[in-house]
Amino acid sequence: MRIGFIGAGKVGFTLGKYLEQKLNKEEIQKNLPETVAVSGYYSRQVESAKEAAAFTNTEAFDDLKKIVCASDVLMLTVPDGRIEAVWDSIKAFDIKGKLICHCSGAMTSNIFSGITEAGAFGYSIHPMYAISSTTKSYREMQKCFFTVEGAEEWGNKLCRFIRLLGNDCVLLSTENKTKYHAAAVFASNLVNGLYGSAVSLLEDCGFEEKQAEQALVPLFMGNASHIAEDGPVAGLTGPIERNDTTTVKKHLNVLDANEKHIYISVSEAVLALAEQKYSDRDYSEMKKILSGQE
Predict the structure, then answer these.
(1) Could you tell me which Gene3D superfamilies the record lists for this protein (predicted)?
(2) pLDDT recorded at residue 153
């Protein structure tokens, strides 16, 4: 089985390099029903395909039809807005029996309209990781969790393949894909917003931006490490957890309308965790404060 990449950006470089390294290991190949290898790359920018091919020791294709013919699995590692257009080009060829996969966290396999009629199989394969570097992120992929979305026929096989690489994987139903992606946003992008708000509050207190970052990084990293090691309930600290209603009232009194909205929304989620941690503690007054009843 040969895996071809259409799109030579950060995701394509990273997944291709990771697969190329893993599939060169005898202990992985011997557990596969057939030999698996990366065929190479196609990109609208020929130079990008050549760079990716050189980086992964594979082949650069200068024609879309050539990589389609040379590959059993096609990974569409292009921006979300390009997936449908690339698919429309691919389905003009003979793709019977092939697996067509995209790597979008937000989109489902339903983007591959008419794939059943074409005799092919469509899936989304999403690495739950922020791939930030074209040439370095592959080193971090061993700890990455993957999800596969699509029909069970090949979905379970794809999950087993990913687990053989040493990564955990879950097969998602199509209807749960959007909620899954929202979960990823909560744990990553939205944290950026909270951190940015913290920097702004310190700047209001007279900190320079660099000083604010310097002050917050140890707090942020320590908390993130604690959550990662012990989970969000055990890792919980702060005035909500302590049921410190006096401090929470003081916070709300000094925040502007937008800051207060963020503080209350996130604090309500924190309160739910605190109630799990201390089931015998009465948080009724805290709930009233957060709901604006006090």
Answers:
(1) NAD(P)-binding Rossmann-like Domain (3.40.50.720), ProC-like, C-terminal domain (1.10.1040.20)
(2) 87
